Input
Amino acid sequence: MNNILFILIFILTLNLNSAFGYDFITSVQSHAEKFNAYVELTNQRQKNKIEILNAVTKRFSNSNTGVWIHSQVYEKDIEIFIPDFINSDDIMEILIKAHTLRSLGARKIALHCTSKIEKLNISDMDNGILEILENLLKTAGVTHIKEGDKRSRKTRTTKTQRPLAPKQITVSNVEGKRLKFSKDFAALAKLDHHSLDKTPLDSHVLLMSDSSVPSNLSFLNTLVTIATLNSQQQKTTLITPYLPYARSDKKDHPGVSVTGRLIADLIESVGTNSILFVRPHAAQSEGFFKIPVFAADSKKTIGQELRDRNVSTVISPDAGFQKDATSIAEEAGLPVAVVNKVRNYETSEILLVDISGPSVKGLDVVIVDDETASGSTADEVAGFLKRRGAQKIYVIVTHLAGSAARAIHSDDIEAIIVTDSLEVTIDDSKLKVLSIAAEMVETLRPLLGDTSQCHIKMSQKNRGEK
Output
């Protein structure tokens, strides 16, 4: 009998700890001061001090967010504190952090808002995001919402806590307007398009996402638009030439999650029926989706450009891109060479050591890659090829996700060729932009069938508009 009583008391203690205490607490990077004040006040009010989660957040040059968690969180309860005033970058940090915690085995992930979640002030977005926020949080791994009013240090904070359940999305405040297309998307513009408020129900909408920088804001705006279309009972195919966070396609460090998988889950959670994107960082990105995926590779467009440039050899910047580089080289009927790299484990420096494949001495060559932000890789590889005797060196990348300043200002690079998968705002004589609209339409051909039943829309910011 005593043993049974002891077990019951032990279980009750566990339940109370689970209900009222958390093992770790964290917040968003941009509100460190408010977070530290909250932790200090919380620890003054409870006997057991709450530990701050050892986590690092980084903003990359392509405006993506990275999260690394160094605490041991398996079977632990985590609280994520957010103030009333946040922005789109904060939302993505919360979603990625929750997804990472879930992938590391956290038992309970509670988002603590100092006010009601529907009253959050999201500075760079309209209220449409609030209609879908709880669904996004649940998809990312948040299990509970803690809501309470914000008081002074002398006043006790009252909180309510509830499990996070699926919520019916009824977004209705996306602006309806006639959609315009730039000449670069003329092939897609040949299909019928209507404003959001006039598109008939049960139609098939091709939604062209906004992939402009800042990418977190444009991605979340796209999710709001899809949710709106879904609430109007419209079948939606998302056309996103650049798939956000596609580079995060594997666990390459401890304490990280596969953010590419989170992006796929978020896109599906708002009601997307199918998706088209262009050359993700790796083929496994297609496998993250449960919905039909149409992937254009930009190979034909790039292959034609290589033939026009009359280059002699295609260069893969590293062994990891060799398969893609070989595919592009075969399209253009050219040989491929690979730059070999080694890591200096004492300094963590990456060294370019030699080339596998034909010699580049005296030849015009082209470096191919899927994406560049700063242009540093292209600059380093071009310098290495120059020292090996290459003549003219061109660079072709599918996605220009930054300024590519180092490549543009490199004396070793003759020209940089990119596609219009992302909005290109740089005006430089060294930069050429290729249209991939024709390849996208061809990739969608099996889906389109009778194009009279399809309508194209642009998400938020229209291409071709200033």
